[in-house]
Every structure is written in structure tokens, then in C-alpha cells.
């Protein structure tokens, strides 16, 4: 893929991924065929900041986990009221990383 398109993708989507994944993403995109660019540019990623806000406001209901696709964990948080509040507080610190990992999984499904 053209280097300009790759750099544009990295600049506009870097906040959706862990910083240590950026170089691997860049290398994989450079090797990617140009015909996949239109599809790649339309993929929607979850914003870690938005998920954090939702986690703070409604984390005890598991809504944050449902939104990133962790249905099982969402049900667990819902049934236990966020692990009696403890799990909800722990997720305030971990949900952004989990969101970025889910975004990476979504990108990997497209790339491989």
C-alpha cells in the first residue's frame, strides 16, 4: 500500500490501538494490497475514551463490556452489580486497554 495512505491511517487511528502495536500495524499495512484500502478506511473502531466514560457512569451494569463485545463479562457484571462494585472500579483502569485490544483484533481479522 502507498506509504502516504498508511501514514494517514496511522495518524487518524492511532488512539484506537496500543502504542506498541503501531509499528506492526504500519508494517502490515505497507505490505497490504492497494485494493483493500477502501474497505480498511471504512472500518469503525471503538473509542477508548468513550468506553471509559460509559464504564464510569454505568459500569456496574456491564454496558461497557457489552459495547466492546465481551458479552460474557457483561452478563457477569450485570448479574453481580459490577462484582459488588469492585469489578466496576477495576474496569475503570482496564477498560481502555481492553477496548484497544478488541480494536486490534478487529483490524487483524481484516488484515489476515
Structure explained in plain terms:
- The chain has one domain (3-111).
- Helices cover 72% and strands 0% of the residues.
- Helix 1 (3-13) packs antiparallel against helix 2 (22-31) and helix 4 (48-58) packs antiparallel against helix 8 (86-111).
- It contains 8 helices and no strands.
- By secondary structure, the protein is mainly alpha-helical.
List keywords for this structure.
112 residues, mainly alpha, 8 helices, 72% helix, elongated
Number of helices: 8
Q: Quickly give the structural class.
A: mainly alpha
Count of DSSP strands: 0
Q: Which spans have pLDDT < 50 for at least 5 consecutive residues? A: none
Mean of the pLDDT scores?
A: 93
**How many domains comprise the coordinates?**
1
Helix content: over 70%
SSE string, helices as H and strands as E: HHHHHHHH
**Biggest sheet, in brief?**
none
Strand content: under 5%
What is the molecular shape?
elongated
Instruction: Give the radius of gyration.
Output: 16 Å
Cα end-to-end separation: 15 Å
Amino acid at each position: 500500500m502507498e506509504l502516504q495512505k498508511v501514514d494517514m491511517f496511522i495518524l487518524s487511528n492511532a488512539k484506537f490501538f496500543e502504542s506498541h502495536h503501531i509499528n506492526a500495524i504500519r508494517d502490515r499495512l505497507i505490505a497490504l494490497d492497494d485494493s483493500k484500502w477502501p474497505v480498511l478506511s471504512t472500518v469503525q473502531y471503538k473509542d477508548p475514551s468513550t468506553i471509559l466514560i460509559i464504564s464510569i457512569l454505568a459500569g456496574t451494569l456491564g454496558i461497557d463490556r457489552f459495547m466492546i463485545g465481551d458479552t460474557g463479562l457483561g452478563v457477569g457484571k450485570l448479574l453481580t452489580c459490577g462484582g459488588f462494585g469492585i469489578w466496576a472500579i477495576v474496569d475503570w483502569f482496564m477498560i481502555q486497554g481492553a477496548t484497544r485490544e478488541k480494536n486490534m483484533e478487529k483490524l487483524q481479522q481484516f488484515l489476515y
